[in-house]
Amino acid sequence: AQAQRTQSAGMIISNNLLIGILVEVSASLLNDFGLNSLSIKTILIGKIIIISTAIPIFYEIFNILKNLLEI
Predict the structure, then answer these.
(1) How confident is the model at residue 52 (pLDDT cuts 50, 70, 90)?
(2) Is the confidence at residue 9, as pLDDT, over 70?
(3) Most buried residue among 6, 7, 15, 33 by CB atoms closer than 10 A?
(4) pLDDT (tens digit per residue) in 14-49
């Protein structure tokens, strides 16, 4: 079970890294075309997507902290 969680966390982190790169490149292109408002909204949506996909990692961290505090 521990190996599954580690592999899953690694996959989530790599996916979030790729999402971040894609969002930054897209926002830079939009900014270069003069669409500053759309660029800012693209970055905001990218941040929301990254946070929503990282929820399982946050859940695991809270479970670890909970288990440490119970002992």
Answers:
(1) very high
(2) yes
(3) 15
(4) 999 999 999 999 999 999 999 999 999 999 999 999
Using alpha carbons, select from 43, 42, 51 the residue that is nearest to residue 16: 51
Say which DSSP state 33 is in: T
What is the token pair recorded at 9? 């966390």
d(CA 23, CA 39): 9
Q: CB of 50 within 8 A of CB of 16? A: yes
SS3 48: helix
Q: What is the pTM of this model?
A: 0.76
Per DSSP, the three-state class of 6 is: helix
65-69-70 Cα angle (round to 5): 120
- 3-state DSSP helix/strand/coil percent for the chain, to nearest 5? 90, 0, 10
